[in-house]
Amino acid sequence: MFTKISIGHNTDTTTIRLAVLAPGDETLPFALHKVVPAVLYAVQTLARQGGHRIEVLHRDTECSSTYGPLHAFELYNSGLADVLLGPLCPYVLAPIARYSSVWELPILTAAGQNDNFDFKEPHYRLLTRMNGSYSQIGLIFLQVLKKFNWEVVALLFHNFEDRTIGNSDCYFLLGAVYTALGRKSFYKDFDETSETMNYEEMLKEVSQNARAELFIGSVSELKHFYEKEKSD
């Protein structure tokens, strides 16, 4: 749960405490065991260049909107963090980013592409996103529509049928596109993990509401989608 690694040889006595917040689940692309080595490599590089002394700590957020913020509270109350790296799960990032503006604690993250993070004030003023935002995809999509003179569009995307686990990344991505389109487009979600999904009925419904379709889902579902469309 807790590791502290100090690196640096600068004569300046100032120590920067960097806290990494990421899930411990090794199946995730941004798991702690994948993130922390990269952070340590960067810190070691800065140390060789004569940078400040840096302490690296990490916490397992479990991708939980409960346990993730609790770890952030612990780090802040203990005075163990000057900068937060992460969180990477949207439902963990949102509350911690709001607290950080009160704590005056900067956050650097490769997550936070959701368009609600676009507004820095008043809640996310210390949040720095290093991986762009979904709203930029919305603007690109508008240019594509303009290029081909498409005006009637349907949005088709994967989302979890079990709403207790929150929404999918596909939902957040197309949410930004939906906003860019003026919140007027027809949209339809489906759970790609469901064994009872009727793709034929779904495609018929979508075809009746659009002349262009934007599909967001896994590679396997994309293949299934086009094979079904071709056969119909």
Automatic annotation (TrEMBL):
It is found in: Membrane. InterPro entries: ANF_lig-bd_rcpt, ANP_Clearance_Receptor, Peripla_BP_I. Residues 37-217 form the Receptor ligand binding region domain. The keyword Transmembrane applies. It comes from the Eukaryota. Keywords: Membrane, Receptor, Transmembrane, Transmembrane helix. One of its GO terms (cellular component) is membrane. GO terms for biological process: signal transduction. Signal peptide: none annotated. Pfam families: ANF_receptor (PF01094). The keyword Aminoacyl-tRNA synthetase does not apply. GO terms for molecular function: peptide hormone binding; signaling receptor activity. This is Atrial natriuretic peptide receptor 3. It comes from Trichonephila clavata. The gene is NPR3.
